[in-house]
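stage 2 :: seqdesign
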């Protein structure tokens, strides 16, 4: 069964026209109106000022970037960042670069690089523009970063510090106390340059010295108290091998990466707000020119105007953790089956759970972009999935906790051994999609919970003496049940009331208060159904440094053997269905196979968690 296209009413693209404004859109619109970046030129690839100056006017009105560190699988928080960065570029005639932030020599793996590319594409975005790929890796800029560091030294803006780590920590001061200048701070540029070259040449031990920006040891912003910009670290890099034994610090590397790529709006999360002054300080030093006493002119390394950094609130989602490191712990400690376990908030996990790109895009749009941190309730994400699947998912009947119902008068009224044909729309609002066909016979599977020997008040389903309709079938009247030695019900009995079949004349002559779903024993298929629940019992599992492992939900997965209608025999991996009365399910993309169906609960029909 193929799933129809998402219904018009819920497709996020339709909401384009009335997309709510946000502070990032306002900034971009202002920059476009004022022509802030209109004079930029683009050399066809990332590069320094000369490279871009030799190029054409930049065909991209704005450039944003999504810069993941390839040290794990992307999660729903990254999806927010992807939707913002790629979405803004799309909406304003720009380009968004995918940049692997791989300046840290450890931990990068090809597996993660590939999964990140897949995730961005799956979400519906691309980094290509014309013939340009705009897929970059920060380690390709190591040569330029080294040159930028040399420039800072020559211009008197950086020095090599040989204090011990402990001395540096003490001399940094704290919030209430200014720092103390390093005794190495007043070295000459020539001395510093020589030392820095020695660092690169491998003449010094790891950790024995660092290159620091020379800013202000008394700055109220501790990030401006001569931050380290290069360190010695003998480590093999996945891209550059053993070429380098010094590596740039993230806070130095990132602004340079943005500048080389002609990024206009560098969007990051709020925790980088305190780094913005250094971001601006550095790019200003690399843009400006300095005339040395000997008349030489230095600088102008990167094109002007440089990129600007803007911060937005990161996504905090209840009942999950959004940190690659913590998600990795769940994987490596076997708390889940892998990065793509359907309970994981990773994009591969959400996808396997039945989430669609449309649902995640809708979610990103709905939570919006703000400048203050908050927690988003998990039910908001689930609501988006429900909304996008409702219009598209084919319907099917499934009995998740089956007990057999025997229609004791079947042989007399329908004929011994006879099966009757029933049908139902594939989608109630899309008659053009046609019908699904199935049989009804003497024995059908019903939900165990649809029968009560002594019904509680307000129970309208099966109990002795009560009539209900088998959905798309006949009205039946319950007569009793059979139990085993332990008192467990093994069979329910009822009689079929003739001439009440759905869709036949006079079928509603007998009024009933309850309608139940069912699957015939004759043509029902057995299927494994994985009933997922939240991975954590606490809304904020890792808040305040709590051990999030302790609030893992021990019942987050329950596997049942269900009976499902025969139309599901043709379900293919990733196909999504609404199991009537139960919720939305997806054929598992890993384990589902013809003849061995496996379905995952994506989301229930109603929100059972929201307050
Ligand atoms: P993690 O701690 O999970 O590794 P990170 O921020 O270190 O997260 P990166 O790979 O460095 O992960 O992030 C790539 C981009 O995704 C960054 O621009 C970052 O700000 C953004 N991002 C990461 N987590 C979130 C989140 N929860 N909400 C919004 N954006 C996020
Ligand atoms: Mg990180």
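stage 2 :: out
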């Amino acid at each position: 069964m193929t799933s129809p296209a998402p219904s018009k009413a819920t497709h996020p693209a339709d909401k384009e026209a009335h997309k709510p404004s946000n502070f990032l859109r306002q900034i971009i619109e202002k920059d476009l109106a004022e022509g802030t970046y209109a004079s930029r030129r683009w050399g066809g690839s990332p590069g320094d000022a000369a490279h871009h100056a030799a190029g054409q006017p930049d065909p991209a009105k704005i450039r944003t970037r999504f810069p993941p560190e390839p040290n794990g699988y992307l999660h729903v928080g990254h999806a927010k960042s992807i939707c913002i960065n790629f979405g803004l570029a799309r909406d304003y005639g720009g380009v968004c670069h995918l940049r692997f932030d791989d300046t840290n020599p450890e931990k990068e793996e090809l597996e993660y690089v590939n999964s990140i590319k897949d995730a961005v594409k799956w979400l519906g975005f691309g980094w290509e523009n014309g013939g340009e790929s705009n897929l970059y890796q920060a380690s390709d800029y190591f040569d330029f970063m080294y040159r930028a560091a040399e420039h800072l030294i020559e211009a008197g803006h950086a020095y090599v510090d040989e204090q011990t780590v402990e001395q540096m920590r003490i001399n940094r001061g704290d919030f209430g106390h200014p720092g103390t200048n390093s005794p190495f701070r007043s070295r000459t540029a020539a001395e510093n340059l020589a030392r820095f070259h020695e660092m690169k040449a491998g003449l010094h031990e790891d950790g024995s010295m660092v290159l620091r920006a020379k800013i202000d040891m008394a700055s109220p912003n501790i990030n401006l108290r001569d931050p380290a910009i290069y360190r010695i670290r003998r480590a093999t890099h996945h891209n550059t091998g053993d070429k380098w034994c010094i590596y740039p610090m993230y806070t130095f590397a990132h602004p340079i990466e943005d500048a080389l790529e002609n990024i206009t709006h560098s969007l990051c999360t709020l925790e980088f707000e305190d780094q913005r002054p250094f971001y601006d300080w550095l790019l200003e030093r690399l843009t400006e020119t300095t005339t040395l006493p000997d008349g030489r002119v230095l600088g102008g390394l990167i094109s002007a105007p440089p990129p600007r950094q803007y911060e937005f609130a990161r996504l905090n989602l209840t009942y999950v953790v959004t940190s690659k490191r913590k998600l990795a712990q769940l994987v490596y400690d076997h708390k889940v089956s892998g990065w793509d376990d359907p309970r994981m908030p990773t994009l591969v996990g959400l996808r396997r759970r039945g989430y669609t790109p449309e649902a995640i895009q809708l979610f990103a749009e709905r939570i919006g972009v703000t400048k203050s941190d908050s927690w988003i309730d998990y039910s908001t994400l689930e609501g988006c999935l429900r909304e996008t699947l409702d219009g598209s998912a084919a319907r099917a009947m499934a009995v998740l906790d089956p007990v057999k119902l025997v229609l004791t008068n079947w042989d007399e009224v329908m004929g011994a051994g006879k099966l009757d044909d029933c049908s139902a729309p594939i989608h109630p609002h899309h008659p053009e999609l046609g019908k699904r066909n199935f049989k009804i016979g003497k024995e059908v599977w019903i939900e165990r919970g649809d029968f009560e020997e002594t019904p509680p008040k307000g129970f309208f389903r099966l109990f002795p003496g009560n009539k209900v309709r088998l959905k798309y079938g006949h009205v039946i009247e319950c007569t009793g049940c059979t139990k085993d030695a332990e008192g467990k019900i093994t069979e329910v009995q009822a009689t079929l009331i003739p001439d009440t079949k759905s869709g036949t004349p006079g079928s509603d002559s007998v009024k009933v208060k309850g309608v139940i779903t069912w699957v015939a024993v004759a043509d029902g298929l057995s299927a494994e159904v994985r009933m997922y629940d939240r991975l954590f019992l606490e809304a904020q599992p890792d808040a305040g440094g709590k051990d999030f492992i302790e609030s893992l939900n021990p019942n987050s997965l329950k596997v049942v053997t269900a009976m499902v209608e025969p139309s599901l025999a043709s379900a293919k991996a990733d196909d999504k269905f609404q199991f009537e009365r139960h919720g939305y399910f997806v054929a598992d993309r890993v384990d589902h196979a013809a003849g061995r169906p496996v379905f995952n609960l994506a989301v229930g029909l109603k929100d059972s968690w929201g307050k």
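stage 3 :: structure notes
- The radius of gyration is 32 Å.
- The pocket of magnesium ion (ligand 2) is lined by residues 69 (CB under 6 Å).
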